[in-house]
Amino acid sequence: MPQKPIVYDAPTPQPRATTVEAIQAEILERLIYSVGKDPIVARPHDWLRATILAVRDRVMDRWMESSRETWRTSNKRVYYLSLEFLIGRLMRDAMSNVGLMEPVQQALRNLDVDLGDLINLEPDAALGNGGLGRLAACFLESMSSLKIPAYGYGIRYVHGLFRQEMSEGWQVELPEDWLAHGNPWEFERRESAYEVGFGGHVEPISDPDGEVRQEWRPNEHLLAVAYDTPIVGWRGSRVNTLRLWSAQPIDPILLDKFNSGDHIGALEESAKAEAITRVLYPADSTPAGQELRLRQEFFFSSASLQDIIRRHLQQYGDLSSLPDKVAIQLNDTHPAISVAELMRILVDENGIKWADAWTLTKGTFGYTNHTLLPEALESWPVSLLERLLPRHMQIVYQINADILKEAREKAGFNDQQIANVSLIDEHGGRRVRMGQLAFVGSHSINGVSALHTDLMKQTVFADLHKLYPERINNKTNGITPRRWLMQCNPALTKLISERIGTDFLDDIEKLHALAPHAEDPGFQKQFAAVKHANKERLVRVIKDRLNISVSPDALFDVQIKRIHEYKRQLLNIIHAVALYDEIRAHPERTWVPRVKIFAGKAAPSYWNAKLIIKLINDVARVVNHDPAVRGLLKVAFLPNYNVSLAETIVPAADLSEQISTAGMEASGTGNMKFMANGAITIGTMDGANVEMHKEVGDDNIVIFGMTTEEVAEKRSRSEVPRSSIDKSPRLREALEAIASGVFSPDDPNRYRDLIGGLYDHDWFMVARDFDAYWDAQVEVEKLWTNRKRWNAMAIRNTANVGFFSSDRTIRQYAADIWGVQTA
User: Fold this and answer.
1) How far apart are CA 140 and CA 810, in angstroms?
2) Catalytic machinery residues
3) What confidence tens digit (pLDDT) does each residue in 108-142 have?
4) Which domains does the chain carry?
């Protein structure tokens, strides 16, 4: 049935009132008529759902108007394709951004319900893993705040990554059932459902004019069904859409099989489809895991592109204006197959000539690279693509032929350079390089920090940069100050407002006005009191979840992020062991009480990362119960790290650990969140730390360790790190204690290989940076004992965080890559 034309002046209901009385009445109405509960017997989760529905109604008014405005004005739209969107809890975010926090709080108070309890009850949306997904969420919020018409496209995971629990110190992965009781924020869009195909064959078709076109005939089909979630901008300026795809079978049950008694076989199509959107990042260590991962990536890329093309044709009628009205940003390599899929749609389904289609494709796509790690730059076996996506493999080969011809004939590349830019890696079995595909199919390729962007030009994309020197640009990451300062630290926000006014709420750069107050003793006292209250809140969380008692007067030394060897949680816990030895050996010294706080998930198949988690918990078990330490050192690993836990930890941190091996962290955004909340960074000159150092100045950050160039030089010489260990008695004793089983008496050899790797190769420079790290931590303790100096540093960190706002980042994307206007 053809769609009815959109009528811009169609009638709409009056916007919902925002008075306390109106909200209170609607919460009760929703409780009774939508949730089906009498207030007398309603439980907290009932009140939560009723409150969300009342808040959501007030968001809907702005959502509808935002959509109508885009259609009326024909503004260019931005489409952000990402396999992750770590949006966290939405109710507080929405209430804060549309100015409903106080009236909702009062309305619930009148009903004898505490808003804080409801906020803590809302489940986190399990739609991401770490920084990549949280960045995407911050970007969507900033696009709404800056009035950029935008859609986020991803997958509606049933379980997301996993729920992390601890069993005797080991990480255990369990399903994250965040959708078990429904999601009141989402709307199913049954009309926005698209067929996605796999397998089959490609057949040449002769058109009447003699032209031969290729037609892909998949032998497997499933449906991608859209679920929409509103993303509210600051002060309700605009509400954009996060559209997530759910995989559903076209025929949920094969009735003939069911009736013949094959009940399991009758449901195989349903199970096969639902597997695609079951979990985030299925283990790809097996061929079956690789296939599922590729299916996920193509599934959401194809559905998103079909949706984008449908919307564009509905409004404009033809595809020649695609780059003028559509900007698609590929968030890392996960949606890189979109380049081949868009070419297929343009050439095969819309009859556009190859050269014209390639011009449209490049003009539409931008690609954000997030890593220099070879294992994170995805590649897929050619045989897998040929079987699963045969037409796309043909298109990849055709693109590659054009690129290599250009490289040879126009740029004069030699054989090695040709191999480097090729979309097909010929080493150890042919594989399609998705990073190269995203690069050649985009008009813009950006890094996410100044250092990372420079390294892209010198390393992974060096020859592609020589071929297309105008494409690589930098867009340093940012965080939304609404969630990561105003919402997670309301007491600090209130204090700053009282001191410098409220202009910074709308322009975070105006936090610079706080810097002159850094030395004010009265303000320092108030600033420290806010931090202490936040620490007391975290103390209660640690006690409730781990049964570990810590003092809020101690230095809270925090490292929370994905567990990976290059992020060097191992360096941090080795320091804890060395400090433990020093405290016991020198009880006569004055020691700064310290709590080392860790959180983060390890990929299920990443053995060393999981072993590091176990080591942290083993060290905690010994150190926390040793009376000789006298409570001067505590270690805590908080399981199931997510956005909500971060919102509790970040405002309470005194010291922010950003200690990755130089040259390996693309940017980092945790460092920015800590900075906003007045934590001091101890870090290497890596990722965005370089720019943080520039913003706060040398006196307000603690930098240590080798530079990127020094790390590269050490690696190039294949230098054995044993000599560095032998020269450092403190390090040697700590490593021997760990390797010999002091912290693992049940299995003395548990950490032998992990520590042995530091002696053999030490790729991540843990041993060779240890002494510099120790000295930096000594400097931290000196600073901590001078509380006036420490507080001034903390205030200056908050005052100078404005550059790291995602609003600044998105303005740069809008101006330099997308060509759209911002508010």
Assistant:
1) 9
2) 370, 561-562, 567, 669, 673
3) 999 999 999 999 999 999 999 889 999 999 999 99
4) 1-73+97-111 (no CATH), 74-89+124-476+811-818 (3.40.50.2000), 481-804 (3.40.50.2000)
